[in-house]
Specification:
The chain is mainly alpha-helical. It has one domain (13-206, 219-421): Growth Hormone, Chain: A (Up-down Bundle). The protein contains 18 helices and no strands. The protein has helices at 18-51, 56-84, 86-103, 110-123, 127-138, 144-151, 153-173, 176-196, 216-230, 233-262, 268-279, 282-296, 300-317, 323-351, 357-368, 370-385, 390-408, 414-421. Helix 2 packs antiparallel against helix 16, helix 3 (86-103) packs antiparallel against helix 5 (127-138) and helix 7 (153-173) runs antiparallel to helix 12. The longest helix has 34 residues, at 18-51. The chain starts with 17 loop residues before the first helix and ends with a helix.
């Protein structure tokens, strides 16, 4: 379903059109259903964990299970994105994520659920690399941060549904039905992606192009080019910063509903409404951060501001004694977090632009998603070993954002580099 010849690396030939936003919307929905599937477990923990007789460490382990598969997949799925193209790869990703999620309600065995979560994570691996590949083909450089921000509203939309919409369903009908709904949502988006996503330019898979076989010299140049991107000091710092950002956010997401029900004494439905309602900030925050980044022509400064603000508002949650204040603090915290994630992702995607962008961004996302493997279980261990001390958990998350801010200060500004080259 290709719509044009490769545009090569000349960015001046790439223009943003109305169809660019159709492609971005499909990428955003792919993220949304993936995040419904991965985060529905955090909403289900207050009911599912006692029913399955799980400790908090084991409950956190089922969030970690998803990201074990996700991390593993990211290290090789970028090659499929470059070869098959993002359309086929993202279609298969949503299809298999839905399949593994649909199987979960048919078992109460922890090992089986763990393996199904790993499988769903493996299936979701190509999301970031595929989305970046589409963005390079359909968006001009001046609109890339805005496009990245829009696509990354998908996680917020998925979180809203997984918590706000699914919490009352889980409370009234049980935790299994939520996984059924999540699985079907993935299948619907898989079909839409296959039918309506089109490829052009750098998004066309190398396996779809009619060209002569690469010489050994060309392949060596590609490997060298990929290695040059991955070993840049700024790229390494960005990978570490995003690993910590994703880990802190996933740790927060995994345990916030349990915090609200056990410490703040909200019902599951009320806690889900608070988390789902504040997640609505993510529908505007990523796009807003992208627009501001494009207008101000800086990625680095917006990332730093977001990191330091995330530290402040994560700490503030511990001292929120009213529903209104809690809602406002969590709402602003999500906006601040988007300024970190979206800006660092844009820095990294611009640094990796080229024929090996899918591979570079797949490896980058694999490294970053290690945070999602580490933080949920690690914080679960903290809760078990401290008798449920959420103060330590929240402060650990807050300090992580503070560290991120200082790491980003050491990165290069890609907008400045592009201007100097021009």
């Amino acid at each position: 379903m290709s719509t044009g010849k490769s545009l090569g690396s000349n960015n001046s030939e790439i223009s943003t059109t109305w169809y660019s936003w159709v492609v971005a919307t499909l990428c955003m929905l792919t993220y949304a259903v993936s995040f419904i599937s991965r985060n529905v477990w955090s909403t289900a923990i207050p009911i599912a964990a006692p029913e399955l007789n799980l400790s908090m460490t084991a409950a956190g382990g089922l969030m970690t299970a998803y990201y074990i598969g996700y991390v593993i997949s990211n290290f090789f799925s970028g090659f499929f994105v470059d070869s098959l193209g993002p359309r086929k790869t993202l279609t298969i990703a949503s299809l298999l994520t839905g399949f593994f999620t649909l199987l979960i309600p048919f078992t109460n065995s922890y090992p089986v659920i763990f393996l199904l979560r790993v499988g769903a994570g493996i299936a979701s691996g190509p999301l970031f690399a595929g989305g970046v590949k589409f963005q390079h083909a359909w968006f001009s450089p001046t609109a890339r941060a805005t496009a990245m921000g829009f696509v990354m509203t998908g996680p917020a939309l998925g979180m809203m549904i997984a918590s706000g919409a699914f919490a009352p369903i889980i409370q009234s009908k049980g935790w299994q039905i939520a996984f059924t709904y999540a699985g079907f949502a993935c299948l619907v988006v898989a079909l839409a992606t296959f039918l309506f996503a089109k490829e052009k330019g750098t998004a066309i898979g190398s396996g779809s192009k009619s060209k002569s076989k690469k010489s050994a010299e060309d392949e060596a140049k590609e490997r060298k080019g990929l290695l040059e991107v991955l070993t840049k000091r700024s790229f390494i710092l960005g990978s570490i910063a995003q690993l910590l950002a994703i880990g802190a956010n996933q740790g927060f997401t995994t345990w916030i509903i349990l915090y609200l029900t056990q410490v703040q004494n909200f019902s599951l439905s009320a806690a889900g409404a608070i988390v789902g309602g504040t997640s609505a900030a993510g529908l505007i925050s990523s796009t807003l951060s992208g627009i501001i980044s494009d207008v101000l022509k800086t990625r680095k400064k917006t990332a730093c501001i977001g990191a330091f603000a995330s530290f402040i508002f994560t700490v503030a949650i511990l001292y929120s004694r009213s529903v209104t204040f809690l809602f406002v603090v969590m709402f602003i915290r999500i906006i601040a977090g988007a300024f970190v994630g979206n800006s660092v992702n844009t820095l990294q995607s611009e640094a990796a632009e080229g024929p090996y962008a899918g591979r570079a961004m797949g490896i980058y996302n694999g490294i970053c998603q290690l945070g999602s493997v580490i933080f949920p279980s690690l914080l679960g261990i903290v809760l078990d070993s401290t008798g449920g001390n959420f103060f330590i958990v929240m402060m650990s998350i807050a300090i992580t954002y503070l560290i991120i801010g200082f790491i980003v200060l050491g990165m290069e500004e890609t907008m400045k580099i592009r201007a100097e080259k021009n």
